[in-house]
Structures are given as C-alpha cells and as structure tokens.
Automatic annotation (TrEMBL), chain A:
Record protein name field: Iron ABC transporter permease
Localization annotation: Cell membrane
Entry superkingdom: Bacteria
Entry keyword set: Cell membrane, Membrane, Transmembrane, Transmembrane helix, Transport
Protein's organism: Mesorhizobium zhangyense
Keyword 4Fe-4S part of the UniProt annotation: no
Membrane topology summary: Multi-pass membrane protein
GO MF assignments: transmembrane transporter activity
Predominant subcellular localization, coarse grouping: membrane
Signal peptide: none
Cited InterPro entries: ABC_BtuC-like, ABC_transptr_permease_BtuC
Single GO cellular component term: plasma membrane
Any one Pfam family match given in the protein's UniProt record, by short name: FecCD
Membrane-spanning intervals of the chain: 60-79, 91-111, 117-138, 145-166, 194-215, 235-268, 280-301, 307-326
TrEMBL record, chain B:
UniProt keyword annotation of Signal present: yes
Domain Fe/B12 periplasmic-binding: 26-275
Protein name, per record: ABC transporter substrate-binding protein
Keyword Signal set for record: yes
GO biological process terms, semicolon-separated: cellular response to iron ion
One Pfam family from the record: Peripla_BP_2
Length: 333, 275
C-alpha cells in the first residue's frame, strides 16, 4: 500500500471513530434514555423533557468535546512542528494555564457577564502571552529543556495567579472552582458556550491548518526553509495566533485539559510518515477521539461525582510523558 | 517568654476549671450556626464574640444583630487572647483549632449540624443549659412546636418539589431540608429518586422528574462563580419557565434554629401560588 493510501485510510478510520464516539457521547448520561428515543428527540421540534436533555445538555457537551479535542490535537501537532520540539504542547508550555488565568479574570470580576465576548478574548490574550514568553525565553533554536523550563515557570505562575484570584473572590464557591480551571470539565456546558467558543476555535484551526506546507519545509531547518521562500514571520504569526485563538477559546469554556496535545501527535506521527502537513488533520481527529472518549469515561466511571477530564487525560498522558522524557534523555546522552 | 507563657497557661487552666461548673460569662462562638443559637439564647453581656460569618447577610439570618459582638475568624491565637470561659464550635469546621484550644485548657463545646427538627430542639435545649438560660431555650422550643402545629394543621398539597442549589446539589432524605419539605406537606423529588444526604442532582434528572416547584438559592452571592451557572443554563431556564422556581436563601436552612421554619412557610406559600 502506498503511503498516500495509508494516510487516507488512517483519516477514514479516525473520522469513523470520531463519529462513533460523538454518538456515544450523546447517549451517555445520568438520565437513562433509550438510544432510538434519544436520537429521535435530538431532531424533534417538540419541547419535551427528553428533547430538552438531548438538545440543550448532551448535544453542546458532545460538540464541545469534539471541537476542544480537535483543537488540542491540532495545536499540539502544530506547536511540535513549529518549535521542532517533541515536548511542545499547549498544556506543557503554559498556554492552557495562562488561558485559564485570562478566563478566570474575565469571569470572576464580572467582566464577562457585561461583555460575553470578553471571556474568549481574555483567554486568548492569556494564551498568546504564554506562547510569546516561552518563545522569547527559549529562542527559535530552543532545545527541549529550555522550552520545558520556561513552560513550567509560566504554567506555575499562571496557576498560582488563578488560585489567588479565586481565593480572593467574595463568593465562597469560587475557591472550589480552582479544580475546574486546572483540570477541565464539560459538565452542563450549554449551547451558549458553543456559540461563544466555536468561532474562535474555527479561526484558529484555519490558521493552524494553513501551516502544513511551511512546517514540512521547516523540518529541513530554519535557514533551509527561509532560503526556500518560507516567510518565517508569517509562520510565527499563524502558529502563535492560531494556537492562542483555538486553545484560548477551548480553555475559556472547559478549563485547562492537559496531555491530549502531547500524546496524540506522538502516537500518530509514525503512521503519517512524520510529515507535519499530514500530521495536522490526523492529530485533530485523534484529539477529538481522545477527548470524547475521556468525557464518556468520566460519566461512566464516576456518575454524579463530576470527575474532571484532566484526571483521565493525565492518567494516560503522564506515563506517556515519562516515557518520552526517558527516551529524550537517552538520545541526548 | 516561656515562663510568661507557662504562667499564662496555668492561669487559664485554673480559671476555666473554676468556672466550668458555673454559668459562663465570656462566651466565644466559632461557627455560624452556634453563633445564631447563642445570639438568640444568651443573656445580656454573656456572649462576647461570634464568627465573621454571623455578620454575613448571605450566611446568617441574624446578621444585623451580629454587629454588637466582637468578630472572630476561628483562629486559635485570636480566641486565646479573648480569654473566654466557654468556647462553642461546630463539629465540621476548624478541627485543629478546637484541639489546640482544648490543649490550652479552654472548655470547648461542640455542636453537630442539625439534620432534623428533633436536632433543632435538642440543640436549643443544650445551648440553654450551657449558657444557664434554660427558660429562654424552653420558650424557643415551644415557639417551634407551635409553629410546627400550625404548619401541620394545613392539608397536605401533594405537590412535588426539588431543591437545586449551586453546583447542582440537592437535599435528599435525612437532611433538614427534607424534613422541612415534609412539614410543609410537599414531596421531595430528590428523596423519591433515592438520593440521601446532600448530593448532586444532575440537570438531566431534574428535567425528567419535572417537579411542580424548584427551590433555588440563586443570587445568594453578588460575586460571580461557575457554581451558579446551572441557573442560567438554557435547559434550566426552560424547565423553570412560569412560576415554578422559588428562591429560598440557604441561610435559612444551613443552620437549625427557630427561623429555619421560615423556609417551610416559604415553601408552603410557593406551593399555594403555583396552582
């Protein structure tokens, strides 16, 4: 089988898996609804309880799971290609944490209640700041270590500021919500959240997806890419804003969800022949699969406990990350 | 410095031992529920300090009266300096503080949260004994019993009600709120669904149960938090369209006291209005 045919097959398999997981996500929930009833209610125009549950509770949750998963997978693949660093990921380099901080400031000061668009915009600003700071610290040729160190510093600072902001809130519930912002959840998100976040995520996707060819060229090195006519400033602009817009919007409505952007591109890279332009769409679908699966599992493992998504993604992602660190270390020696 | 501390501690030990049997004159309460019971029962000048939550309009029914007392934040150092002859605390909060204060020789009495109407009577009577104000306590218990008799004299309305608090928590069977719902002649949906204690009621189940009344605690706090996002969810808005939602501030139901029955009256009135 040729490489192109194998790539197409991979996309078809991932697309089918995403579709099946999307359907499963619609059918899992505390209210035990029959499959056919629930799918019929999804398209029903009558305002019964089941239609309300399907259209206003489960549909937005499944859509957000799909979109946020795709965002994390895509941005992970794009950042790894752009920074040419296997450890780059929105969670690890501090983008998710600073986007959380931006969202927290917008929500808990009451700003987003007056101006709803302020929520994704503040998260976007936070995310952009993180990418720029990490990049400035690590430089264009930054090694794995500098990027991770800068990312750890940015993440922990943003995490501490998030905790501080929530602890200072006069509302006693706010402090408990530190968990949501650090680990992420899709519980009881509504269509309002979808409409708020989707435009930013789609704009981010378009920017990141257009990076395919430049990233392919970039695998030859910065100088080679520049001599082949790649506009490095344009690539930087697209990578930074694309990540900030999509991850910022995702984090603003669901909190920071780690490891998806790290693990998915790594698993899929060998399957696409290590070509960034092919990795991007595959990672987007793979990320959607992982996040939808995680969101289904939190509802099955601990119904009624509101288990956070980050718990599940970290259970899978952290051992993988350790393995990656181990391998990187061996290569350095 | 050590010597001074030792002398100070011995004098505290002596003072508290001598006064333990007598009526306390300098009482410090460290819990919003014991604060309110003590404010209702204590004699003039007997209660010295209440917790900062007692003055919080969202948590305390008697917030206006709390201004007359010194405020504490449940910290051992702060309470130590007040040199009380009786400390009243709740069993759920400030555990380490209570242990430390006991080690320092103070007399600490603890109250568990009230989970039933009997708990309320018991707590009032016990507070009366601790403060040497048995008559005042008996008067309050009598008031509660009269109030209960009035509520129970009304015919049951057979309407169903679900409580839906911040973070989608509800009061299942075995809670004070469940008892209040029973007294007001309504049916608690959470108990029917088999939920016990304070537990989560997923929005999906609330929609399916479709109760006649939904009790919320919306707007208890002015500052925003995600905890109250459930109240602006389009599905919640759809199910509470009309006159189904009643807002009963949690300050009436987090503590067991004579004013707790106010919540039962509010439920009763709301059930009457939602014909």
């Amino acid at each position: 089988m040729s490489e192109t045919a194998r790539y197409r097959l991979l996309l078809i398999v991932l697309g089918a898996a995403t579709f099946i997981l999307f359907l499963l996500s619609l059918t899992v929930g505390p209210a035990a609804l029959a499959f056919t009833d629930s799918i019929a209610a999804l398209f029903s125009s009558k305002a019964g309880a089941i239609a309300l549950i399907m259209q206003e509770i489960r549909l937005p949750r499944a859509i957000l799971g799909l979109m946020i998963g795709a965002t994390l997978g895509l941005s992970g693949a794009a950042l790894q290609g752009y920074l040419r660093n296997p450890l780059a990921e929105p969670g690890l380099i501090g983008v998710s944490a600073t986007a959380s901080l931006g969202a927290v400031i917008a929500i808990y000061t009451g700003f987003s209640a007056v101006f709803p668009l302020g929520l994704p915009l503040a998260a976007l600003a936070g995310a952009m700041l993180a990418v720029l700071v990490v990049q400035a610290m690590a430089g264009m040729k930054g090694g794995a270590l500098t990027i991770i160190l800068a990312g750890v510093a940015v993440s922990s600072f943003a995490g501490a500021m998030t905790s501080l902001a929530l602890n200072l809130s006069p509302n006693p519930f706010a402090a408990l919500e530190i968990m949501f912002w650090m680990l992420g959840s899709l519980t009881d998100r509504s269509m309002t959240h979808v409409w708020l976040a989707a435009p930013f995520m789609v704009v981010g996707w378009v920017m990141l997806a257009s990076l395919g060819r430049p990233l392919d060229t970039l695998t030859l090195g910065n100088d080679a890419a520049a001599s082949m006519g790649v506009d490095m400033r344009r690539v930087q602009f697209l990578a930074v804003f694309g990540t900030a817009a999509s991850v910022g919007a995702a984090t603003a409505v669901a909190g920071a969800i780690g490891f998806v952007g790290l693990v998915v591109p790594h698993i899929l890279r060998p399957l696409v022949g290590s070509r960034p332009s092919r990795l991007l769409p595959a990672s987007a679908l793979g990320g959607a699969c992982v996040l939808l699966a995680a969101d289904i599992l939190v509802r099955i493992i601990a119904p009624g406990k509101d288990l956070k998504l980050g718990v599940l993604t970290a259970i899978v992602g952290a051992p993988f990350f350790l393995w990656l660190v181990y391998r990187t270390r061996r290569n350095l020696l | 410095m050590k010597q001074i501390m030792a002398i100070l501690m011995i004098s505290v030990l002596n003072a508290s031992a001598a006064l333990a049997a007598e009526v306390p004159h300098r009482v410090v309460s460290m819990n919003v529920c014991t604060d309110q019971l003590a404010m209702l029962i204590a004699g003039a000048g007997q209660l010295y300090s209440v917790s900062y939550l007692a003055g919080d309009r969202n948590a305390s029914v008697l917030a206006d009266q709390a201004g007359g007392y010194v405020v504490n934040h449940g910290l051992a150092e702060e309470v130590f300096l007040m040199q009380p002859d009786l400390i009243i605390a709740g069993t759920f909060t400030t555990r380490t503080t209570v242990e430390l204060l006991r080690r320092l020789g103070f007399r600490v009495e603890e109250f568990a949260p009230a989970n039933s109407l009997d708990d309320i009577r018991e707590h009032i009577a016990r507070m009366g004994e601790l403060l040497g104000r048995q008559e005042k306590a008996a008067e309050l218990v009598k008031r509660i019993d009269n109030d209960l008799a009035t509520l129970r004299a009304q015919p049951p309305s057979s309407k169903s009600v679900a409580t839906y608090y911040a973070n989608s928590y509800t009061s299942g069977s075995g809670t004070l709120v469940d008892a209040l719902i029973g007294v007001s002649g309504l049916e608690n949906v959470a108990a029917r669904l088999g939920l016990t204690g304070t537990s989560k009621l997923p929005l999906e189940l609330l929609l399916l149960a479709n109760p006649d009344l939904i009790v919320s605690s919306e707007g208890d706090y002015a500052a925003p938090a995600l905890a109250e996002e459930g109240y602006v969810h389009p599905a919640f808005k759809a199910v509470t369209a009309g006159s189904k939602a009643v807002n009963i501030s949690t300050k009436y139901t987090i503590c067991g006291a004579p004013f707790t029955l106010e919540a039962a009256h509010m439920l009763r009135d709301a059930a009457g209005a939602a014909k």
